[in-house]
Amino acid sequence: MPICELCQALVILPGDIIFIYQTSRRLKMETTIARQSLATPASPAGAVLRKPSNPLLKSTRPLQAARLEGKAICASLSTSVNAAAVAERPVSARPAEVDTTKTPKQLGFTMPGEFEPHVGCWMGWPESDDSKYLWREGGQPARQAYANVAKAISQFEPLFMIANPGEPAANARRVFSDSPNVTVVEIPINDGWTRDWGPSCIARDVDGHREVAGVHWDYDCYGAPGKIAQGRPAMMPNWDKDVAAGRALLTTNGLPVFEAPLHLEGGSIHSDGQGTLVVTEECLLDPSRNPHLDKAGIENILKEYLGLEKIIWLWRGMEGDTEVVNGHVDNMCCFIRPGVVALAWSDNEDDPQHEVGVRNLEILNSTTDARGRKLEVVKVHCPPPLFRTYKEAAGVDPEHITKGYCPRLPGVRMPATYINHYAANGGVVVPQFGGAAAETDRLAIETLQKAYGDSYKVVGVKSREVLLNAGNIHCITQQHVAGW
User: Fold this and answer.
1) Could you name the domain of life of the organism this protein comes from (predicted)?
2) Band of the pLDDT at 94, cuts 50, 70, 90?
3) Which of 312, 311, 261 has the alpha carbon at shortest distance from 289?
4) Which residues is 95 bridged to in the sheet?
5) DSSP letter string over 386-404?
6) DSSP state of 442
7) pLDDT for res 446
């Protein structure tokens, strides 16, 4: 029986069920076919399941996958998801074989849109020596929020939770013991901002197949060296594990790695999958990031490493996203699908966010994408301004500032937005804030459900604990793009 590389499709017969035993290290799978009907529940009576022969396989919890009419899927999903809709999504790893001394664009790669099929989603478990200096109460409330986000995403696609080896990984496994579509993978990390230190998957079509590779950015923790030199606050004093983890996510999945000569975070870019990228000037032109490059130089590297034809430069990101992150676009604007973007919006003319939204809207309305289309803009109203409370600020270790971590002070506005959501296979997971934001919470779900359409199920997850550290759901997730 062939080995599946998360999750290379097997040629099986109608009526077969494949039981996949997944590793917690090398992310490979062994399979056994049980001659049963696809309508039969998982682990049917009489099915003979062999234990994995590979000693590295720590987990023997079976996941299901199936091939229907030649279309492979990863289908260990909640019964609440429409299986017929998922079956239309071809999913496998299908790594490319490439010469990584050339640029991805030279080899025909481009960055897919987030709305395109995924093998699964990567997240990072926020439990490390840094946690008490980044999160309140040692990170426990944040870990609960991460768990809620992960479980919501796992309704729609496999979720791979990266955790520090030892006690953090063991704790994560206990949290997800009731979540069969969440797998804990042991890789050392500093913290759980997987979108930002993680790789960006790229793909190309070759003879009817989609091949996948990855771009590993020269992540420097939001321009931390430059900020420290300028006397500005940095996120944290050390990020070496995160840099290595970003590359490890590609190598452990057998994906070719393109090392990009650019200090960048994944939250600062959004792609339409057809050659267009949206970014903000506030972030990419911040002097802490790449002071040796001008706008044209940054644009050239992005085009070469993400296979782009056009970059749309918005003015600024969200208010409250200025201290360290500097206006990531994933708080402000994202592609729903090619030709359609969602934009964070405020009608309150007394709020600086209104001015930012108006100017960004003018930019979007006055441009076209790489294929010459005018963009349809969906306004997603922001919650009312939200601020860090005294109690929340006091919960962070009092030495966090003197030890080189970003000050988390009371009364500071936080970048609350619904744009910072994650689009999974057939599902969208959206931040919810509660309290004074209850009405905009409801409207955001309604607006995004209409924008994404009936093929997606939009769900909300309370995520203020993530927001306390200036990010949200999109910031803590990263898609593993599918090939076929």
Assistant:
1) Eukaryota
2) confident
3) 261
4) 212
5) EE--HHHHHTS-TTTTTTT
6) H
7) 98
Please compute the mean of the pLDDT values over residues 191-210 and round it to a whole number: 97
Check if the beta carbon of residue 198 is closer than 8 Å to that of residue 266.
yes
Q: How far is CA 253 from the centre of its chain?
A: 16
Sign of the dihedral through C-alpha 288, 290, 291, 297: negative
**DSSP E strands: which ranges in 233-375?**
257-259, 270-271, 276-280, 310-314, 333-337, 340-345
pLDDT > 90? residue 213? yes
| Residue type, position 468, single letter | L
Residue 278 amino acid letter: V
Q: List pLDDT tens digits, range 432-453.
A: 999 999 999 999 999 999 999 9
CA quadruple 440, 442, 448, 450: dihedral, nearest 10: -120
Using alpha carbons only, how large is the chain's radius of gyration in Å? 22
Cα–Cα dist 377/368, whole Å: 12
Report pLDDT for 95: 73
Query: Apex CA 78: angle with CA 74 and CA 82, to 5°?
Result: 75
User: What are the b/e assignments for 302-339, b being 16+ CB within 10 Å?
Assistant: bbbbbbbebbbbbbbbbbbbbbbbbbbbbbbbbbbbbb
> Taking the CA of residue 160 as centre, how many other CA atoms within 13 Å lie in the half-sphere pointing to its CB?
25
Q: Which of 4, 333, 382, 475 is catalytic?
A: 475
Concatenating the DSSP letter of every residue in 41-100 gives: PSS-TT---PPPS-TT-----EEEEEEETTEEEE----TTS-HHHHHTS--B--B----T
Residue 475 annotated as catalytic: yes
- Domain 118-481 sits in CATH at 3.75.10.10
Q: Note the pLDDT tens digit of each residue in 254-282.
A: 999 999 999 999 999 999 999 999 999 99
Ordered by start, the domain boundaries in the chain are 16-87, 118-481
Torsion sign (Cα): 367, 368, 370, 372: negative
Model confidence over 217-257: pLDDT tens digits? Answer: 999 999 999 999 999 999 999 999 999 999 999 999 999 99
Residues 6+ apart with CB under 8 A from 13: none
Between 454 and 322, residue with greater pLDDT: 454
The answer to whether 311 touches 277, Cβ cutoff 8 Å, is: yes
